[in-house]
Amino acid sequence: MFEIRPEEAADWWEVEALYDLCFAPGREALSSYRLRDHIPPVRGLSQIVREDGIVAGAIRFWPVHVGTADALLLGPIAVHPTHQGEGLGGYLIRAGLEAGREKGWNRVMLVGDAPYYQRFGFTRLEGVEMPPPTNPDRILGLDLVPGAWQGITGPVTRWNRVG
Ligand SMILES: CC(C)(COP(=O)(O)OP(=O)(O)OC[C@H]1O[C@@H](n2cnc3c(N)ncnc32)[C@H](O)[C@@H]1OP(=O)(O)O)[C@@H](O)C(=O)NCCC(=O)NCCS
């Protein structure tokens, strides 16, 4: 039985351990991490999943600016290898997108594998710049309200948003 609830401060290191397990070493050298350093994840949207108390999955969202526009940065998301392919990742993404929309966010972006994220409606963002060496084909976005990415271009920058 999975227990899914918002991540709290006390969960931080268990989620980090899951990410260390699921991602290649050196994940924190990726440029997307520079958008997250010393900025808390968006409260209420970042979720942790446990099965019998043991962490099975986690998703985090961060606030960023794209040019002058507000956006959610999805990720990291990871599901423990013993639970991959059971639909948990898809559930966390869909639930996170819905919760983001309900909380008034208009658009979400991520840096990731298009073959996975296109099933949720993510498409390549033209003119949205992550610091090099990000592969532009991995910069993906989704409208939470119709047309939200229209005309939004520029560098992705840190947003030290409270709450
Ligand atoms: C990516 C991840 C979060 C997906 O979670 P999950 O619970 O296994 O996903 P789901 O069960 O909802 O979906 C499984 C499907 O996604 C596909 N998939 C998983 N990772 C994929 C990828 N990188 N590219 C393309 N498809 C992928 C699986 O092949 C499977 O396809 P199917 O539905 O056709 O069988 C999980 O595999 C994971 O933690 N991977 C390691 C960390 C990672 O890569 N995170 C994403 C960063 S971009």
TrEMBL record:
Pfam families the UniProt entry points to: Acetyltransf_1
Alphabetical UniProt keywords: Acyltransferase, Transferase
Enzyme class: transferase
Start and end residues of each N-acetyltransferase domain: 2-145
Gene3D superfamilies for the chain: 3.40.630.30
Keyword Signal: no
Record keyword Transferase present: yes
CDD domains per record: NAT_SF
GO molecular function annotations of the record: acyltransferase activity
Designated name of the protein: GNAT family N-acetyltransferase
